[in-house]
């Protein structure tokens, strides 16, 4: 049974048909395994390698090859990912550079447009300033004319009122009753109630005189003072020109 098993293994691995055949090339340079581990040979072990040891070593080599293949695949994947990241970063940088270049090319046009807009605004401000200055000068001239006119009218009305008052002959009001009351008080210093009737009569006389001196009895005075007060309330304050 051991011989039949050995024959089947030798058919699977032709180079293992004999126990020492694969390792008879030691004199030709001793080829090394990819893993750096030497396969068991008669020189290393001092005896002929068994078929089980050869099979074990073959499986070990296969596992190592799988590991190496997986490591290579992982390394390739990492290189591809790094390449994609680098490409994305480079593309982003190129896009940013292109945008900056476009903005730099557009900047002179924007500056020209801004300059034209500012010139238009300055021209409009100058036009408005000239218009408001003209309006202000016109208002000041009108105020000066009104002030001059009202001042002349005020002076004229005041002069007329003063002349009319000077021409007016003012007599004492109820002079006779006033003398009688003074005489009564002098004669009745301790009994002043005796003069109460004269005092009442004097008050009635004064009231009547006040009513007689009201404006309707003096139309010229009423007219002059009405003009005087209306001009006073309407006249603007003088400005410095």
From TrEMBL:
Membrane topology of the entry: Lipid-anchor
Start-end of Polar residues biased regions: 13-23, 35-48
Record field: compositional bias (Basic and acidic residues): 1-12
PROSITE patterns: CHCH (PS51808)
Domain of life: Eukaryota
Any Pfam family the entry gives: MIC19_MIC25
Family classification: Belongs to the MICOS complex subunit Mic19 family. Metazoan Mic25 subfamily.
Function: Component of the MICOS complex, a large protein complex of the mitochondrial inner membrane that plays crucial roles in the maintenance of crista junctions, inner membrane architecture, and formation of contact sites to the outer membrane.
Protein name listed in UniProt: Coiled-coil-helix-coiled-coil-helix domain containing 6
Classification lineage: Eukaryota, Metazoa, Chordata, Craniata, Vertebrata
Gene expressing this chain: CHCHD6
């Amino acid at each position: 049974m051991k011989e039949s098993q050995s024959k089947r293994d030798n058919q699977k691995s032709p180079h293992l048909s004999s126990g020492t055949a694969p390792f008879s090339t030691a004199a030709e340079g001793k080829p090394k395994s990819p893993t750096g581990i030497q396969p068991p040979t008669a020189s290393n072990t001092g005896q002929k390698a068994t078929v089980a040891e050869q099979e074990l070593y073959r499986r070990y080599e296969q596992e190592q090859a799988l590991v190496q293949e997986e490591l290579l695949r992982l390394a390739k994947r990492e290189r591809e990912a790094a390449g994609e990241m680098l490409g994305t970063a480079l593309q982003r940088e190129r896009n940013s550079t292109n945008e900056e270049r476009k903005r730099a090319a557009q900047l002179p046009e924007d500056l020209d447009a801004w300059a034209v807009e500012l010139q238009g605004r300055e021209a409009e401000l100058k036009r408005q300033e000239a218009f408001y200055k003209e309006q202000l000068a016109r208002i000041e001239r009108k105020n000066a004319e009104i002030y001059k006119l009202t001042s002349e009218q005020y002076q004229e009305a005041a002069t007329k009122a003063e002349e009319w008052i000077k021409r007016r002959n003012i007599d004492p009001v109820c002079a006779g009753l006033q003398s009688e009351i003074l005489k009564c008080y002098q004669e009745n210093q301790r009994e002043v109630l005796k003069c109460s009737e004269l005092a009442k009569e004097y008050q009635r006389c004064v009231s009547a005189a006040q009513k007689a001196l009201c404006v309707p009895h003096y139309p010229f005075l009423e007219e002059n003072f009405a003009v005087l007060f209306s001009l006073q309330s309407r006249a603007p304050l003088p400005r410095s020109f």
